[in-house]
Amino acid sequence: MISLLRKDLLILRRSRLTVALLVIYPVAIALLIGLALSRGPTRPRVAIVNETTPGATVEVGGRNVPVSGYADQLFNQVEAVPTASRSQAVAKVQSGDVLAAVVIPHDIAARLSSDVSQAHLEVLYNGNALEQSLVQSSLNSALAQANLGFSEQIQKAAAQAIGLLLKGGNLGVLGAPPNLVGLSQIPPLLRGVIARQPPGPDRASLERTLVFATFAAQNLTLSKTVLSTISQPIAVHSTLLHGRRTPLNTFAVVVAVSVSLMFVCVLLAAGGVALEREEHALARLLRGLISREGLLAEKALLAAACSFLLAFAMLAGIGAFVSLDWSRVPLWLAALALGALSFGALGVSIGALAREVRAASLLAFLLSLPLAFLALVPSGSVTGGLYDAISAVSFIFPFKATLQALDAAVNQASPGLPVSLAHLLGLTVLFGALARLGLRRLD
Amino acid sequence: MSATPAGAGLGGAGLGGSILSVRDLAMRYGEREALREVSFDAAAGELVAVVGPNGAGKTTLLSILAGIQRPTAGSVSRAPREVGWVPQQPALYSKLTVAENLALFARLEHVSDPQDAVARMLEQTGLRERAAEQVSRLSGGNRQRVNVAIGLLSRPPVLALDEPSTALDPGQRERLWSFIRGLAADGTSVVFSTHDVNEVQRYAARALVLADGRLLFDGSPAAFLAEAGGSGGDFEDAFVSFLRARGHR
Predict the structure, then answer these.
(1) Which CATH code fits A45-158?
(2) What is the distance between the alpha carbons of residues A351 and A291, in angstroms, rounded to a whole number?
(3) Hey, which residues does A168 pair with through a beta bridge?
(4) Amino acid B7: pLDDT
């Protein structure tokens, strides 16, 4: 087995282009996947045409809320490109300079202040169906956030107006008398007057007025609370039931390393076994020079060792930029080692089935890429039955188990490391047995 | 049916002591019988040709001798390690040099002194000048010489070659046969399969004619010609007539 191992290392050393591709390609793919996972979508670039008069306000209960506040809210949600006119905005959308344009019409303040007509915004976009869907989705979210922020400003203004009505004083509204008595001050004042009033019809009228004033003051106090409830009726508190909170960037590291480990190991192991067949050496070797099990073990171990070293170097290298817990290195090594072994077993089973290296590499590639993507499909993103099928497929191949083992080792995610390692060990035995079956044929 | 043909001519014992004895070999692949009770002997230094149409069982017979396949029934007197194996397609690593290929298989064969074995085979095959050259850069003829050399690394008493001259040009073929005859002259018993009946006539001391897994003839090429009755000593005509007369195409 040592002689065969030395031979394979010599062949690898002389296949520099293959080795370079074998390293660069999966690392590039892994980094792209990692970046795609760790970076959220950027804010959409949107042209904003504000046709409102500078200083225009919405009057709420005698308080004025500047309309520019709405534009500011919108500016915070998107990458805003202030645009002077609607026609310029249309040109920017058509040229692809911006994803969409939002026109805030000149009459928005009047409509917001009006009791009868709803305020409208104009949204302009183009592109294919996918782009439209993406733009609509991100813009709807941005507009919803802006609406919420603006409604909070209006709610605050309304609450201030109600507060002044309750406490009294100077309302600051044109035409309002100075030093008005507050609604909450009326009941105690009335009680004093009633106490000095002799029984009779006047006192009865005052008592009825006191009942109304007390009721009105209590309900107006309550309305402030109601207003804040309406502005955000449901507050969300989230609780994680399954696993630790894994930061997205460290999970992306785990994904990137697992993808590299899989590609390098599966391709190397599959190619190694297929090369023996392609060079017509398999029959010569298996006529007593080495056992089938020995041959498969040599190929799987070589591939596992190479991919293990690459994956660990990658993890350690990324660890220089992302905060990782270095005290858990022994657990990383265990996860990487078992993952590499199971990928090695998968690789040799592919190699045992293929007649030549190119076929083995293609088969390994065609199998590995979908496995990586299937393992990353989150529950709830597809129908229940489809997710069950995806889970079953992911369970019988080593990628998801390796991902879980490495996530547990790096991020303490669940299921725990022992469960994932046992799973990987089982898959190693399974694919090893399949490879042994595949190697029965010698031609 | 007996595996001993009616027209058996010279046997291995006729050239000295039998160095290889094959008895009642049978091989089945499911319902298909690839070999049926094949028996023969080979003596030291004897060149034995196994000839027959496609699907006759030639490769199956040689791969059983080499230990690549286990027969369904029957026995071979030599263990696989005592039989040098030269497959039809050169079984070499193209990224390794000639010397590296030889050294690898010498170590895998547990040859006592691998470096000495490599030097000996380079000398014997005339490839010493090309020892450091990668196999991928060699001609088909030279690859086949390395292929044969690997089969001889452990100095086996018997060498089994599966269609060794296929894909070689006439010059390369001539040099290969010269080399193989040299081996036989040194006492190695050589069993080779071929489609080229002229090679049987020119190089073999004995011919084994197989068809549908049965051994139809075991004897010298001259005895075969006499039995088959080919016109004007044409071995190919005699071979075709022989098979047709026995219901084979």
Answers:
(1) 3.40.1710.10
(2) 16
(3) A181
(4) 35
What is the edge-to-edge ordering of all strands in the sheet holding B206-211? B83-86, B158-162, B189-194, B47-51, B206-211, B214-219
Cβ-based neighbours of B244, under 8 Å, separated by 6 or more: none
B53-98 pLDDT per residue, tens: 888 888 899 999 988 888 999 988 888 888 888 888 888 999 999 9
Residue A442 has its nearest CB partner, among B68, B96, B108, at B68
Interface contact B93-A289, CB threshold 8 A? no
Parse chain A into domains and list their residue ranges.
Answer: 2-38+247-438, 45-158, 181-228
Average pLDDT over all residues of chain A: 82
Planar angle of CA B89, B19, B16, nearest 5 degrees: 125
**Chain B contacts of A290, Cβ < 8 Å?**
108
- The reported pLDDT for the residue numbered A296 is 94
From chain A, which residues contact B within 8 Å (Cβ)?
A: 3-4, 7, 10-11, 14-15, 279-281, 283-290, 442
Label residue A130 by pLDDT band (50, 70, 90): low
Decide if B95 and A287 are in contact by the 8 Å CB cutoff. no
In the CATH scheme, what is the code of domain B1-78+157-249? 3.40.50.300
Helix (H) or strand (E) holding B42: strand B32-43
Q: How confident is the model at residue A307 (pLDDT cuts 50, 70, 90)?
A: very high
Token digits of residue A1? 């087995």
B167 in contact with A at a CB cutoff of 8 Å?
no
The Cα of B232 is separated from the nearest Cα of chain A by a number of Å equal to 41
Domain ranges for chain B: 1-78+157-249, 93-156
- Residue pair A344/A264 in contact (Cβ under 8 Å)? The answer is no
Q: Which residues contact A213 (CB under 8 A, 6 or more apart)?
A: A183, A186, A187, A190
If DSSP codes are grouped into helix, strand and coil, which group holds residue B155?
Answer: coil
Nearest to B68 among A4, A283, A290 (CB): A283
The verdict on pTM exceeding 0.90 is no
pLDDT tens for A329-342 read 899 999 999 999 99
Q: Is B89 on the interface with A (CB under 8 A)?
A: yes
Q: Tell me the chain B residues in contact with residue A15 when contact means C-beta distances shorter than 8 Å.
A: 95
Q: First-to-last CA distance in chain A?
A: 21
| Higher-scoring residue by pLDDT: A343, A372 | A343
- DSSP at B80: G
